[in-house]
Amino acid sequence: MAKYIFVTGGVLSSLGKGIFSASLAKLLKSYGSNVSLMKIDPYLNCDAGTLNPFEHGEVFVTQDGFECDLDIGNYERYLDVFAKKEQNLMMGSVYKSIIEKERHGDYLGKTIQLIPHATNEIKSRIKQAAKTTNCQILIIEIGGTVGDIESDVVLEAARQMKFEEEAENVSFFHLALVPTITTGEVKTKPIQHSTKSLLSRGITPDFLVARCDKPLTNSAKEKIAVFCNVREENVLHSPTVFSIYQLPYVLAEQQVHSKLSKRMNFELSENSTDKWAPLIEKQKQLSKEKQEVRIAVIGKYATSKDAYMSVFESLEHCAINCNVKLVADLIDSESLEKGKTNLEDYDGILVPGGFGGRGVEGKIQSVKYARENQVPYLGICYGLQIAIIESARNLLNYFDANSTEIDQNTTHPVIDILPEQKSIGNLGGTMRLGGFDVAITPNTLAHSLYHSEKIFKRFRHRYEINPEYVSEFTKSGWIFSGKDPVRTIMKIGELNGHPFFVGTQAHPEFDSRLDNPEPLYLGFVNAAKEYKNKKIKNERQP
Ligand code: GLN
Q1: pTM above 0.90, yes or no
Q2: How far is the CA of 461 from the centre of ligand 1 (A)?
Q3: Active site residue 509
Q4: Which CATH architecture group holds 3-38+97-264?
Protein backbone atom coordinates (compact mmCIF):
# COMPACT_ATOMS: atom_id res chain seq x y z
CA MET A 1 0.00 0.00 0.00
CA ALA A 2 1.60 3.24 -1.15
CA LYS A 3 1.17 6.66 0.39
CA TYR A 4 0.46 9.60 -1.91
CA ILE A 5 1.68 13.18 -1.71
CA PHE A 6 0.11 15.63 -4.15
CA VAL A 7 1.88 18.86 -5.10
CA THR A 8 -0.27 21.60 -6.59
CA GLY A 9 0.72 25.05 -7.82
CA GLY A 10 -0.81 28.47 -7.39
CA VAL A 11 -0.70 31.99 -8.84
CA LEU A 12 1.50 31.21 -11.83
CA SER A 13 3.18 28.38 -13.63
CA SER A 14 6.96 27.87 -13.86
CA LEU A 15 7.40 28.30 -10.12
CA GLY A 16 9.64 25.29 -9.86
CA LYS A 17 7.08 22.73 -8.72
CA GLY A 18 9.14 20.04 -10.44
CA ILE A 19 12.32 21.01 -8.60
CA PHE A 20 10.36 21.26 -5.36
CA SER A 21 8.78 17.80 -5.83
CA ALA A 22 12.12 16.25 -6.79
CA SER A 23 13.80 17.91 -3.79
CA LEU A 24 11.14 16.60 -1.44
CA ALA A 25 11.64 13.13 -2.89
CA LYS A 26 15.42 13.40 -2.55
CA LEU A 27 15.04 14.51 1.08
CA LEU A 28 12.77 11.59 1.96
CA LYS A 29 15.03 9.18 0.12
CA SER A 30 18.01 10.40 2.14
CA TYR A 31 16.05 9.36 5.25
CA GLY A 32 15.55 5.87 3.92
CA SER A 33 12.11 6.15 2.29
CA ASN A 34 11.39 4.38 -0.94
CA VAL A 35 10.01 7.33 -2.91
CA SER A 36 8.99 7.81 -6.50
CA LEU A 37 7.60 10.70 -8.50
CA MET A 38 4.87 11.20 -11.06
CA LYS A 39 3.79 14.21 -13.08
CA ILE A 40 0.26 14.71 -14.36
CA ASP A 41 -0.07 17.25 -17.17
CA PRO A 42 -3.66 18.37 -17.59
CA TYR A 43 -3.56 19.32 -21.28
CA LEU A 44 -5.02 17.23 -24.06
CA ASN A 45 -1.73 16.02 -25.53
CA CYS A 46 -1.01 12.31 -25.15
CA ASP A 47 2.72 12.82 -24.63
CA ALA A 48 5.30 15.60 -24.97
CA GLY A 49 6.54 14.40 -28.37
CA THR A 50 4.60 16.92 -30.41
CA LEU A 51 4.78 19.82 -27.93
CA ASN A 52 6.77 22.91 -28.80
CA PRO A 53 9.99 22.97 -26.71
CA PHE A 54 9.87 26.74 -26.79
CA GLU A 55 6.69 26.68 -24.69
CA HIS A 56 7.21 23.50 -22.70
CA GLY A 57 10.94 22.97 -22.60
CA GLU A 58 12.90 19.93 -23.62
CA VAL A 59 11.24 16.65 -24.50
CA PHE A 60 12.77 14.13 -22.13
CA VAL A 61 12.85 10.47 -23.16
CA THR A 62 12.57 7.57 -20.73
CA GLN A 63 14.57 4.42 -21.28
CA ASP A 64 11.32 2.61 -22.05
CA GLY A 65 10.71 5.02 -24.92
CA PHE A 66 8.21 7.62 -23.69
CA GLU A 67 8.51 11.25 -24.75
CA CYS A 68 7.77 13.14 -21.60
CA ASP A 69 7.82 16.40 -19.73
CA LEU A 70 11.19 17.84 -18.71
CA ASP A 71 10.35 17.41 -15.04
CA ILE A 72 10.89 13.68 -15.46
CA GLY A 73 14.52 14.58 -16.17
CA ASN A 74 14.66 16.41 -12.84
CA TYR A 75 13.15 13.37 -11.12
CA GLU A 76 15.87 11.16 -12.61
CA ARG A 77 18.65 13.57 -11.68
CA TYR A 78 17.47 14.10 -8.08
CA LEU A 79 16.68 10.47 -7.29
CA ASP A 80 19.40 8.95 -9.49
CA VAL A 81 16.97 6.50 -11.07
CA PHE A 82 15.66 5.77 -14.55
CA ALA A 83 12.02 6.76 -14.84
CA LYS A 84 9.27 4.64 -16.37
CA LYS A 85 6.65 5.83 -18.83
CA GLU A 86 3.92 5.53 -16.17
CA GLN A 87 5.54 8.43 -14.30
CA ASN A 88 4.25 11.06 -16.73
CA LEU A 89 0.56 11.13 -17.44
CA MET A 90 -0.73 13.55 -20.03
CA MET A 91 -4.47 13.88 -19.86
CA GLY A 92 -4.94 13.34 -23.61
CA SER A 93 -4.05 9.71 -23.04
CA VAL A 94 -6.71 9.40 -20.33
CA TYR A 95 -9.42 10.80 -22.61
CA LYS A 96 -8.15 8.75 -25.54
CA SER A 97 -8.39 5.50 -23.62
CA ILE A 98 -11.89 6.37 -22.35
CA ILE A 99 -13.09 7.18 -25.86
CA GLU A 100 -11.53 3.99 -27.23
CA LYS A 101 -13.35 1.96 -24.55
CA GLU A 102 -16.58 3.79 -25.36
CA ARG A 103 -16.21 2.96 -29.07
CA HIS A 104 -15.43 -0.63 -28.20
CA GLY A 105 -18.67 -0.83 -26.24
CA ASP A 106 -17.12 -1.37 -22.83
CA TYR A 107 -19.49 1.12 -21.20
CA LEU A 108 -22.61 -0.06 -23.03
CA GLY A 109 -25.70 1.83 -21.90
CA LYS A 110 -23.79 4.23 -19.68
CA THR A 111 -23.29 7.97 -19.97
CA ILE A 112 -19.56 8.63 -20.02
CA GLN A 113 -18.64 11.51 -17.74
CA LEU A 114 -15.60 13.24 -16.32
CA ILE A 115 -16.76 12.02 -12.92
CA PRO A 116 -16.49 9.06 -12.49
CA HIS A 117 -14.94 7.84 -15.75
CA ALA A 118 -12.06 10.28 -16.15
CA THR A 119 -11.41 10.53 -12.40
CA ASN A 120 -11.40 6.72 -12.05
CA GLU A 121 -8.94 6.43 -14.92
CA ILE A 122 -6.66 9.05 -13.33
CA LYS A 123 -6.77 7.30 -9.95
CA SER A 124 -5.98 3.97 -11.51
CA ARG A 125 -3.01 5.46 -13.44
CA ILE A 126 -1.69 6.97 -10.19
CA LYS A 127 -1.92 3.61 -8.45
CA GLN A 128 -0.33 1.96 -11.45
CA ALA A 129 2.61 4.38 -11.28
CA ALA A 130 3.11 3.48 -7.60
CA LYS A 131 3.00 -0.22 -8.50
CA THR A 132 5.35 0.01 -11.48
CA THR A 133 7.93 1.95 -9.53
CA ASN A 134 7.36 -0.27 -6.51
CA CYS A 135 7.46 2.64 -4.09
CA GLN A 136 6.30 3.28 -0.57
CA ILE A 137 5.59 6.96 -1.21
CA LEU A 138 4.53 8.44 -4.55
CA ILE A 139 4.81 12.20 -4.98
CA ILE A 140 2.41 13.39 -7.67
CA GLU A 141 3.04 16.80 -9.19
CA ILE A 142 -0.08 18.23 -10.79
CA GLY A 143 0.98 20.44 -13.69
CA GLY A 144 -0.51 23.88 -14.28
CA THR A 145 -2.08 26.16 -11.74
CA VAL A 146 -5.09 25.66 -9.48
CA GLY A 147 -8.00 27.39 -11.18
CA ASP A 148 -7.15 26.24 -14.71
CA ILE A 149 -10.28 24.66 -16.17
CA GLU A 150 -8.42 21.66 -17.53
CA SER A 151 -6.74 20.74 -14.24
CA ASP A 152 -10.05 20.59 -12.33
CA VAL A 153 -10.65 16.96 -13.20
CA VAL A 154 -7.18 16.00 -11.93
CA LEU A 155 -7.75 17.90 -8.68
CA GLU A 156 -11.10 16.15 -8.33
CA ALA A 157 -9.41 12.75 -8.68
CA ALA A 158 -6.87 13.80 -6.04
CA ARG A 159 -9.66 14.98 -3.74
CA GLN A 160 -11.41 11.63 -4.12
CA MET A 161 -8.21 9.79 -3.24
CA LYS A 162 -7.93 11.72 0.00
CA PHE A 163 -11.47 10.65 0.78
CA GLU A 164 -11.09 7.02 -0.27
CA GLU A 165 -7.68 6.21 1.22
CA GLU A 166 -6.75 6.22 4.91
CA ALA A 167 -6.38 9.87 6.00
CA GLU A 168 -2.71 9.33 6.87
CA ASN A 169 -1.98 8.01 3.39
CA VAL A 170 -2.68 11.17 1.38
CA SER A 171 -1.14 14.63 1.84
CA PHE A 172 -1.28 17.86 -0.10
CA PHE A 173 1.44 20.46 -0.62
CA HIS A 174 0.39 23.69 -2.28
CA LEU A 175 3.22 25.79 -3.72
CA ALA A 176 2.38 29.37 -4.62
CA LEU A 177 4.14 32.60 -5.38
CA VAL A 178 4.72 35.04 -2.52
CA PRO A 179 6.13 38.08 -4.31
CA THR A 180 8.20 40.91 -2.90
CA ILE A 181 7.17 44.28 -4.31
CA THR A 182 9.47 47.22 -5.02
CA THR A 183 9.15 48.59 -1.48
CA GLY A 184 10.62 45.32 -0.23
CA GLU A 185 7.28 44.23 1.24
CA VAL A 186 6.28 40.57 1.00
CA LYS A 187 2.75 40.09 -0.32
CA THR A 188 0.66 37.16 0.85
CA LYS A 189 -2.59 37.93 -0.95
CA PRO A 190 -1.86 35.83 -4.06
CA ILE A 191 -1.19 32.70 -1.99
CA GLN A 192 -4.33 33.40 0.05
CA HIS A 193 -6.42 33.53 -3.10
CA SER A 194 -4.92 30.45 -4.66
CA THR A 195 -5.38 28.49 -1.43
CA LYS A 196 -9.02 29.60 -1.37
CA SER A 197 -9.35 28.32 -4.89
CA LEU A 198 -7.99 24.95 -3.76
CA LEU A 199 -10.32 24.91 -0.73
CA SER A 200 -13.28 25.55 -3.01
CA ARG A 201 -12.36 22.31 -4.79
CA GLY A 202 -12.63 20.38 -1.54
CA ILE A 203 -8.89 20.16 -0.90
CA THR A 204 -7.35 21.49 2.29
CA PRO A 205 -3.59 21.61 1.90
CA ASP A 206 -1.56 20.04 4.70
CA PHE A 207 1.48 22.14 3.81
CA LEU A 208 1.78 25.50 2.10
CA VAL A 209 5.02 26.34 0.37
CA ALA A 210 5.74 29.98 -0.32
CA ARG A 211 7.82 30.41 -3.46
CA CYS A 212 9.66 33.59 -2.59
CA ASP A 213 12.87 35.51 -3.17
CA LYS A 214 14.10 35.25 0.43
CA PRO A 215 13.15 33.01 3.37
CA LEU A 216 9.82 34.07 4.92
CA THR A 217 9.72 35.91 8.22
CA ASN A 218 7.73 34.39 11.08
CA SER A 219 5.14 37.12 10.86
CA ALA A 220 4.56 36.40 7.16
CA LYS A 221 4.19 32.72 7.99
CA GLU A 222 1.75 33.51 10.77
CA LYS A 223 -0.35 35.62 8.43
CA ILE A 224 -0.42 32.95 5.73
CA ALA A 225 -1.35 30.29 8.31
CA VAL A 226 -4.31 32.29 9.66
CA PHE A 227 -5.68 33.29 6.28
CA CYS A 228 -5.14 29.94 4.58
CA ASN A 229 -6.32 27.55 7.26
CA VAL A 230 -2.99 25.75 7.60
CA ARG A 231 -0.97 25.23 10.80
CA GLU A 232 1.82 27.76 11.14
CA GLU A 233 4.55 25.10 11.43
CA ASN A 234 3.34 23.73 8.12
CA VAL A 235 3.88 26.98 6.25
CA LEU A 236 7.19 26.45 4.49
CA HIS A 237 9.29 28.46 2.10
CA SER A 238 11.10 27.65 -1.09
CA PRO A 239 13.33 30.68 -1.61
CA THR A 240 15.41 31.33 -4.70
CA VAL A 241 18.66 29.42 -4.24
CA PHE A 242 22.10 29.69 -5.80
CA SER A 243 21.89 26.16 -7.19
CA ILE A 244 18.74 24.14 -7.80
CA TYR A 245 20.49 21.23 -6.06
CA GLN A 246 20.39 23.16 -2.77
CA LEU A 247 16.64 22.92 -2.32
CA PRO A 248 16.58 19.50 -0.58
CA TYR A 249 18.81 21.04 2.13
CA VAL A 250 16.55 24.06 2.45
CA LEU A 251 13.63 21.67 3.03
CA ALA A 252 15.68 19.62 5.49
CA GLU A 253 16.38 22.79 7.55
CA GLN A 254 12.62 23.22 7.83
CA GLN A 255 12.26 19.64 9.08
CA VAL A 256 9.86 18.77 6.26
CA HIS A 257 10.84 15.10 6.53
CA SER A 258 9.93 14.81 10.22
CA LYS A 259 6.74 16.84 9.80
CA LEU A 260 5.68 14.53 6.96
CA SER A 261 6.64 11.34 8.78
CA LYS A 262 4.45 12.41 11.68
CA ARG A 263 1.58 13.49 9.45
CA MET A 264 1.69 10.35 7.29
CA ASN A 265 2.90 7.91 9.91
CA PHE A 266 6.03 6.47 8.35
CA GLU A 267 9.45 5.75 9.81
CA LEU A 268 12.61 7.66 9.02
CA SER A 269 15.99 6.01 9.19
CA GLU A 270 19.33 7.71 9.81
CA ASN A 271 20.17 10.29 7.18
CA SER A 272 22.48 8.63 4.69
CA THR A 273 25.74 10.40 3.82
CA ASP A 274 25.23 12.64 0.91
CA LYS A 275 27.51 13.39 -2.00
CA TRP A 276 25.80 16.58 -3.11
CA ALA A 277 26.74 19.06 -0.36
CA PRO A 278 30.49 19.28 -1.17
CA LEU A 279 29.69 19.54 -4.89
CA ILE A 280 27.32 22.46 -4.34
CA GLU A 281 30.00 24.12 -2.21
CA LYS A 282 32.49 23.62 -5.03
CA GLN A 283 29.98 25.02 -7.53
CA LYS A 284 29.73 28.15 -5.36
CA GLN A 285 33.51 28.54 -5.10
CA LEU A 286 33.98 28.03 -8.84
CA SER A 287 31.38 30.69 -9.61
CA LYS A 288 33.72 33.22 -7.97
CA GLU A 289 36.69 32.34 -10.21
CA LYS A 290 37.76 34.91 -12.77
CA GLN A 291 38.79 32.53 -15.50
CA GLU A 292 35.94 30.83 -17.28
CA VAL A 293 35.50 28.16 -19.92
CA ARG A 294 32.88 29.27 -22.41
CA ILE A 295 30.66 26.89 -24.32
CA ALA A 296 28.35 27.90 -27.16
CA VAL A 297 25.20 25.81 -27.48
CA ILE A 298 23.77 26.48 -30.92
CA GLY A 299 19.99 26.18 -31.02
CA LYS A 300 16.96 27.56 -32.75
CA TYR A 301 14.95 28.02 -29.53
CA ALA A 302 17.32 30.82 -28.76
CA THR A 303 15.65 32.35 -25.74
CA SER A 304 14.76 29.17 -23.93
CA LYS A 305 17.51 27.27 -22.14
CA ASP A 306 14.73 25.00 -20.85
CA ALA A 307 14.39 23.68 -24.40
CA TYR A 308 17.84 22.11 -23.86
CA MET A 309 17.60 21.61 -20.09
CA SER A 310 19.46 18.29 -19.77
CA VAL A 311 22.27 19.57 -22.00
CA PHE A 312 22.86 22.59 -19.75
CA GLU A 313 22.55 20.48 -16.58
CA SER A 314 25.07 17.98 -17.96
CA LEU A 315 27.55 20.73 -18.77
CA GLU A 316 27.23 22.08 -15.24
CA HIS A 317 27.79 18.61 -13.71
CA CYS A 318 30.95 18.25 -15.80
CA ALA A 319 32.22 21.74 -14.97
CA ILE A 320 32.13 20.98 -11.25
CA ASN A 321 33.89 17.68 -11.89
CA CYS A 322 36.55 19.38 -14.07
CA ASN A 323 37.05 22.23 -11.59
CA VAL A 324 36.13 24.98 -14.00
CA LYS A 325 33.79 27.91 -13.96
CA LEU A 326 31.68 27.22 -17.01
CA VAL A 327 29.59 29.71 -18.91
CA ALA A 328 27.27 28.02 -21.35
CA ASP A 329 25.51 30.44 -23.70
CA LEU A 330 22.62 29.59 -25.93
CA ILE A 331 23.40 31.01 -29.37
CA ASP A 332 20.69 31.64 -31.91
CA SER A 333 21.48 29.53 -34.99
CA GLU A 334 19.59 32.00 -37.18
CA SER A 335 21.72 34.90 -35.98
CA LEU A 336 24.84 32.90 -36.95
CA GLU A 337 23.33 32.45 -40.39
CA LYS A 338 22.95 36.20 -40.71
CA GLY A 339 26.56 36.67 -39.60
CA LYS A 340 25.46 38.56 -36.50
CA THR A 341 27.28 36.39 -33.97
CA ASN A 342 30.83 35.20 -33.87
CA LEU A 343 32.16 32.26 -31.96
CA GLU A 344 35.71 33.41 -31.26
CA ASP A 345 35.11 33.83 -27.54
CA TYR A 346 34.14 30.20 -27.09
CA ASP A 347 36.22 27.23 -26.00
CA GLY A 348 33.74 24.59 -27.05
CA ILE A 349 30.81 24.33 -29.46
CA LEU A 350 27.83 22.07 -28.96
CA VAL A 351 24.98 21.51 -31.40
CA PRO A 352 22.13 19.81 -29.51
CA GLY A 353 19.18 17.76 -30.77
CA GLY A 354 16.84 19.46 -33.20
CA PHE A 355 14.38 19.15 -36.03
CA GLY A 356 13.64 20.91 -39.29
CA GLY A 357 15.39 23.45 -41.44
CA ARG A 358 15.12 26.69 -39.46
CA GLY A 359 18.59 27.91 -38.53
CA VAL A 360 20.28 24.80 -39.87
CA GLU A 361 22.82 26.64 -42.05
CA GLY A 362 23.95 28.57 -38.95
CA LYS A 363 24.55 25.24 -37.21
CA ILE A 364 26.57 24.00 -40.19
CA GLN A 365 28.69 27.16 -40.06
CA SER A 366 29.40 26.63 -36.37
CA VAL A 367 30.58 23.07 -37.06
CA LYS A 368 32.86 24.32 -39.86
CA TYR A 369 34.33 26.88 -37.48
CA ALA A 370 34.96 24.24 -34.78
CA ARG A 371 36.48 21.77 -37.25
CA GLU A 372 38.77 24.26 -38.94
CA ASN A 373 39.92 25.98 -35.76
CA GLN A 374 40.44 22.85 -33.66
CA VAL A 375 37.76 24.03 -31.20
CA PRO A 376 36.24 21.10 -29.25
CA TYR A 377 32.92 20.08 -30.78
CA LEU A 378 30.13 17.93 -29.42
CA GLY A 379 27.19 17.07 -31.66
CA ILE A 380 24.09 15.60 -30.08
CA CYS A 381 21.75 13.69 -32.40
CA TYR A 382 21.00 16.44 -34.94
CA GLY A 383 24.43 17.76 -34.00
CA LEU A 384 26.05 14.57 -35.34
CA GLN A 385 23.96 14.76 -38.50
CA ILE A 386 24.90 18.42 -39.01
CA ALA A 387 28.60 17.59 -38.58
CA ILE A 388 28.28 14.87 -41.23
CA ILE A 389 26.59 17.30 -43.63
CA GLU A 390 29.39 19.82 -43.03
CA SER A 391 32.06 17.19 -43.74
CA ALA A 392 30.24 16.07 -46.88
CA ARG A 393 30.14 19.61 -48.20
CA ASN A 394 33.61 20.75 -47.19
CA LEU A 395 35.73 17.59 -47.06
CA LEU A 396 34.07 15.49 -49.75
CA ASN A 397 33.07 18.53 -51.84
CA TYR A 398 29.45 17.42 -52.19
CA PHE A 399 28.25 21.01 -52.19
CA ASP A 400 24.52 20.33 -51.94
CA ALA A 401 24.86 17.46 -49.40
CA ASN A 402 22.03 17.51 -46.93
CA SER A 403 19.63 15.52 -44.80
CA THR A 404 16.44 14.43 -46.54
CA GLU A 405 14.69 15.91 -43.52
CA ILE A 406 15.69 19.31 -44.91
CA ASP A 407 16.05 18.75 -48.65
CA GLN A 408 14.29 15.81 -50.29
CA ASN A 409 15.97 16.52 -53.63
CA THR A 410 19.60 16.72 -52.58
CA THR A 411 21.93 14.76 -54.85
CA HIS A 412 23.87 13.65 -51.76
CA PRO A 413 21.46 12.52 -49.05
CA VAL A 414 24.18 11.85 -46.47
CA ILE A 415 21.55 11.79 -43.75
CA ASP A 416 18.49 9.79 -44.64
CA ILE A 417 15.34 8.46 -43.06
CA LEU A 418 15.64 5.16 -41.18
CA PRO A 419 14.15 2.38 -43.34
CA GLU A 420 11.43 1.49 -40.80
CA GLN A 421 10.35 5.15 -40.63
CA LYS A 422 9.48 5.39 -44.32
CA SER A 423 5.95 4.04 -43.99
CA ILE A 424 5.08 5.94 -40.80
CA GLY A 425 2.34 8.57 -41.16
CA ASN A 426 1.52 9.63 -37.59
CA LEU A 427 4.01 11.95 -35.95
CA GLY A 428 3.15 11.21 -32.30
CA GLY A 429 5.32 8.64 -30.52
CA THR A 430 6.61 7.07 -33.74
CA MET A 431 10.31 7.99 -33.76
CA ARG A 432 13.04 5.53 -32.85
CA LEU A 433 12.64 6.07 -29.12
CA GLY A 434 14.17 4.92 -25.87
CA GLY A 435 17.24 3.03 -24.73
CA PHE A 436 19.34 0.92 -27.12
CA ASP A 437 22.73 -0.76 -26.91
CA VAL A 438 25.72 0.89 -28.54
CA ALA A 439 28.78 -1.19 -29.43
CA ILE A 440 31.95 0.83 -28.83
CA THR A 441 35.01 0.26 -31.00
CA PRO A 442 38.22 -0.35 -29.01
CA ASN A 443 41.10 2.14 -29.36
CA THR A 444 38.86 5.09 -30.08
CA LEU A 445 38.20 8.31 -28.18
CA ALA A 446 34.72 7.02 -27.30
CA HIS A 447 36.25 3.89 -25.81
CA SER A 448 38.75 5.90 -23.80
CA LEU A 449 35.84 7.86 -22.31
CA TYR A 450 33.39 5.04 -21.68
CA HIS A 451 35.95 2.33 -20.79
CA SER A 452 33.54 -0.24 -22.16
CA GLU A 453 32.69 -2.03 -25.39
CA LYS A 454 28.97 -1.80 -24.76
CA ILE A 455 26.94 1.11 -23.45
CA PHE A 456 23.21 1.78 -23.24
CA LYS A 457 21.95 5.19 -24.37
CA ARG A 458 18.66 6.87 -25.16
CA PHE A 459 17.57 7.87 -28.66
CA ARG A 460 14.91 9.99 -30.33
CA HIS A 461 15.30 10.25 -34.08
CA ARG A 462 13.88 9.39 -37.51
CA TYR A 463 17.02 9.96 -39.57
CA GLU A 464 20.47 8.40 -39.56
CA ILE A 465 23.83 8.62 -41.33
CA ASN A 466 23.13 7.11 -44.74
CA PRO A 467 24.97 3.72 -44.61
CA GLU A 468 25.89 4.12 -48.31
CA TYR A 469 28.22 7.01 -47.45
CA VAL A 470 29.90 5.48 -44.40
CA SER A 471 33.00 4.25 -46.23
CA GLU A 472 33.52 7.65 -47.89
CA PHE A 473 33.36 9.39 -44.54
CA THR A 474 35.78 6.86 -43.10
CA LYS A 475 38.24 7.68 -45.87
CA SER A 476 37.88 11.38 -45.12
CA GLY A 477 38.93 10.92 -41.47
CA TRP A 478 35.78 9.93 -39.62
CA ILE A 479 35.94 7.01 -37.21
CA PHE A 480 32.62 5.47 -36.32
CA SER A 481 33.35 4.47 -32.78
CA GLY A 482 29.80 3.65 -31.69
CA LYS A 483 27.50 1.46 -33.74
CA ASP A 484 24.30 -0.44 -33.36
CA PRO A 485 25.36 -3.99 -32.41
CA VAL A 486 23.34 -5.56 -35.23
CA ARG A 487 22.21 -2.90 -37.67
CA THR A 488 24.19 -0.45 -39.79
CA ILE A 489 23.18 2.55 -37.67
CA MET A 490 26.19 4.76 -36.80
CA LYS A 491 25.76 6.01 -33.27
CA ILE A 492 29.02 7.78 -32.42
CA GLY A 493 31.43 9.38 -34.87
CA GLU A 494 34.72 11.17 -34.21
CA LEU A 495 37.01 13.04 -36.54
CA ASN A 496 40.67 12.07 -36.69
CA GLY A 497 43.31 14.77 -36.29
CA HIS A 498 41.15 17.06 -34.17
CA PRO A 499 41.53 17.29 -30.38
CA PHE A 500 37.83 16.64 -29.76
CA PHE A 501 35.31 16.48 -32.56
CA VAL A 502 32.60 13.97 -31.63
CA GLY A 503 28.98 13.47 -32.52
CA THR A 504 26.48 10.97 -31.25
CA GLN A 505 23.06 9.94 -32.46
CA ALA A 506 22.12 9.37 -28.81
CA HIS A 507 21.14 11.78 -26.04
CA PRO A 508 23.75 11.07 -23.35
CA GLU A 509 22.74 14.21 -21.44
CA PHE A 510 19.73 12.33 -20.05
CA ASP A 511 22.09 10.12 -18.03
CA SER A 512 24.18 12.82 -16.40
CA ARG A 513 24.04 13.32 -12.63
CA LEU A 514 25.52 15.98 -10.36
CA ASP A 515 27.76 13.38 -8.72
CA ASN A 516 28.21 11.24 -11.83
CA PRO A 517 28.66 13.31 -15.00
CA GLU A 518 28.13 11.64 -18.35
CA PRO A 519 31.49 10.47 -19.84
CA LEU A 520 31.13 11.94 -23.35
CA TYR A 521 30.09 15.33 -21.96
CA LEU A 522 32.93 15.10 -19.47
CA GLY A 523 35.40 14.46 -22.30
CA PHE A 524 34.03 17.51 -24.11
CA VAL A 525 34.28 19.86 -21.12
CA ASN A 526 37.79 18.60 -20.36
CA ALA A 527 38.76 19.28 -23.97
CA ALA A 528 37.27 22.79 -23.74
CA LYS A 529 39.27 23.37 -20.57
CA GLU A 530 42.46 22.28 -22.33
CA TYR A 531 41.65 24.46 -25.32
CA LYS A 532 41.20 27.44 -23.00
CA ASN A 533 44.48 26.76 -21.18
CA LYS A 534 46.32 26.57 -24.49
CA LYS A 535 44.73 29.81 -25.62
CA ILE A 536 45.91 31.57 -22.46
CA LYS A 537 49.41 30.16 -22.84
CA ASN A 538 49.62 31.37 -26.45
CA GLU A 539 48.39 34.81 -25.45
CA ARG A 540 51.10 35.03 -22.79
CA GLN A 541 53.83 34.10 -25.23
CA PRO A 542 55.29 37.15 -26.93
N1 GLN B 1 15.78 15.53 -36.65
C2 GLN B 1 16.73 14.49 -36.51
C3 GLN B 1 16.11 13.13 -36.65
O4 GLN B 1 14.92 12.98 -36.57
C5 GLN B 1 17.45 14.58 -35.18
C6 GLN B 1 16.59 14.34 -34.00
C7 GLN B 1 17.18 14.82 -32.71
O8 GLN B 1 18.08 15.62 -32.70
N9 GLN B 1 16.63 14.34 -31.60
O10 GLN B 1 16.82 12.15 -36.86
Answers
A1: yes
A2: 4
A3: yes
A4: 3-Layer(aba) Sandwich (3.40)
Q: Could you tell me if 318 and 346 are in contact, meaning their C-beta atoms sit under 8 angstroms apart?
A: no
Domain range summary for the chain, segments of one domain joined by + = 3-38+97-264, 279-538
pLDDT digits (tens, 9 = 90+) for 331-356: 999 999 888 788 999 999 999 999 99
Band of pLDDT at residue 424, cut at 50, 70 and 90: confident
Query: Could you tell me if 333 and 367 are in contact, meaning their C-beta atoms sit under 8 angstroms apart?
Result: no
d(CA 28, CA 257): 6
Distances (CA, A) of 112 to 94, 98, 125: 13, 8, 18
Q: How far is the CA of 220 from the centre of ligand 1 (A)?
A: 49
CA of 206 to the centre of ligand 1 (A): 44
Q: Which CATH topology does 279-538 take? A: Rossmann fold (3.40.50)
Q: Which of 460, 504, 507, 510, when mutated, tests ligand 1's pocket best, judged by the most ligand atoms within 8 Å of its CB?
A: 460
Per CATH, 3-38+97-264 and 279-538 having the same topology is answered: yes
Q: CB of 436 closer than 6 A to ligand 1?
A: no
Express each pLDDT in 16-34 by its tens digit.
999 999 999 999 999 999 9
DSSP 472-539: HHHHTTEEEEEE-SSSS-EEEEEETTSSSEEEESS-GGGG-BTTB--HHHHHHHHHHHHHHHHHHHHH
381 CB near ligand 1 (under 6 Å):
yes
Q: What letter represents residue 431's amino acid? A: M
